[in-house]
Automatic annotation (TrEMBL):
Its cofactor is Zn(2+). Residues 55-324 form the Calcineurin-like phosphoesterase domain. Belongs to the metallophosphoesterase superfamily. Purple acid phosphatase family. GO terms for molecular function: hydrolase activity, acting on ester bonds; metal ion binding. This is Metallo-dependent phosphatase-like. It comes from Vigna unguiculata. It is found in: Secreted. Homodimer. One of its GO terms (cellular component) is cytoplasm. It comes from the Eukaryota. Keywords: Glycoprotein, Iron, Membrane, Metal-binding, Secreted, Signal, Transmembrane, Transmembrane helix, Zinc. The chain crosses the membrane at residues 12-32.
Length: 399
């Protein structure tokens, strides 16, 4: 090679290396004006059961976060009021994460309280701060108060989906095969499903053994001239039925046991904010927990309960909205459970501790491997000195 060709080759190599260096820097940081924007930190995915055969979910209902230390608490004892603020909500979330060490956190709406949040984005980051700091995967849906600040519901869910360690989605992006593969419009923002895989090293390590459905139950609406709370629409139920049917059909073969244990379709859990109109019926039935206030549901019954029953895989539903209800009750074979009020700026009951709900799914132990889900438990933790554990119960188990 003569010196001229060598020199050209050297310059070309230097140019390529420079481009690679600049590209690497661009991928790790890029700039808008003078602001540095970080790439989102993602959790370890997929979601899966732990090696001990459990998957634990922390449900956080109704944080009602405002603007931090300046936002006063509601419905606490007079001795607590002077020093109580949103920071008590943050402290409770940090304590419960540390005490329970969940695998996943589900926020079921009214995460911020719009009228007390001058900057919705800032309030969201503060509200979800302990979850982000934990590095745990988490997801959220919206309630009826989140959009009352400076962002609409689509903007809120967009931001939530981009936050560190969030696995939230704005809406499903898949095509509907029943409509010729066309994109379908789904009401609301925050309708998505998350699949939880089997324990590492087990025969179902690459199979979904638990499904988590998240739905946007809306905020407020006018129905027949009367103002009422939002409800889950037919477009959302259509999507839900289709996803459930496709999932159950695809998993028939993968979940057939070779370990001598009978298997069933993977169970599912659902999460949304506003209770369905059948919940008041539980006042006359046996429940676990406390029924302390009238159910603030929609006047519209869109057939959510019937849809869940027909699907066959949803075993329990977790809601919020009514802060001083914290009970679980059974409707047509499906458990409906309130989270209980979590946040200190949301209304509550003086002397009645704020609380969180824990849901734990447990796998069946086969001869040689962890199998599918055997049972689903729940209990609550109170924000008292001992983080008291109450109302433990079995929601579902293989018979």
């Amino acid at each position: 090679m003569d010196s001229e060709n060598w020199r050209h080759s050297f310059l070309y190599l230097a140019f390529v290396l420079a481009i690679l260096h600049l590209t690497q820097n661009f991928l790790s940081h890029f700039f808008i004006g003078n602001e540095t924007v970080r790439i989102k930190k993602n959790p370890n995915l997929p979601l899966r059961f732990s090696s001990d055969g459990t998957f634990k979910i922390l449900q956080v209902a109704d944080m009602h976060y405002g603007s931090g230390s300046l936002t006063r608490c509601r419905d606490v004892l007079p001795s607590e009021f002077e020093f109580c603020s949103d920071l008590n909500t943050t402290r409770f979330l940090k304590r419960i994460i540390q005490a329970e060490n969940p695998d996943f956190i589900a926020f079921t709406g009214d995460n911020i309280f719009g009228s007390s949040a001058p900057d919705a984005a800032e309030s969201l980051f503060r509200a979800f701060g302990p979850a982000i700091e934990s590095g745990l995967p988490w997801a959220a849906v919206l309630g009826n108060h989140d959009q009352e600040s400076t962002m609409n519901r689509e903007e809120l869910m967009s931001l939530i989906s981009l936050m560190d360690y969030s696995v939230s989605k704005i809406n499903p992006s898949d095509d509907d095969p029943t409509k010729g593969g066309l994109k379908t419009k789904i009401d609301g923002f925050g309708n998505y499903d998350l699949r939880v895989y089997g324990a590492p090293g087990s025969m179902l390590a690459n199979s979904t053994v638990l499904n988590l459905f998240f739905l946007d139950s809306g905020d407020r609406a006018v129905y027949q001239g009367i103002r009422t709370y939002g409800w889950i629409k037919e477009s959302q139920l259509h999507w839900l039925r289709r996803v459930s049917q496709e999932f159950q059909g695809q998993n028939q073969d993968s979940l057939h046991s070779t370990d001598g244990i009978s298997t069933i379709n993977p169970p599912a859990l659902a999460f949304f904010h506003i209770p369905i109109p059948e919940i008041p019926e539980l006042f006359y039935k046996e429940i676990v927990g406390q029924f302390q206030e009238a159910v603030a549901c929609s006047r519209v019954n869109s057939g959510v309960l019937q849809t869940f029953v027909s699907m066959g895989d949803v075993k329990a539903v977790f809601i919020g909205h009514d802060h001083t209800n914290d009970f679980c009750g059974n409707l047509d074979g499906i458990w409906f459970c309130y989270g209980g009020g979590f946040g200190y700026h949301g209304y509550g009951k003086a002397g009645w501790p704020r609380r969180a709900r824990i849901i734990q799914a447990e796998l069946e132990k086969g001869k040689n491997s962890w199998m599918g889900v055997q049972r689903i438990l729940t209990w609550k933790r109170l924000d008292d000195e001992k983080l008291s554990k109450i109302d433990e119960q079995i929601l579902w188990q293989v018979r």
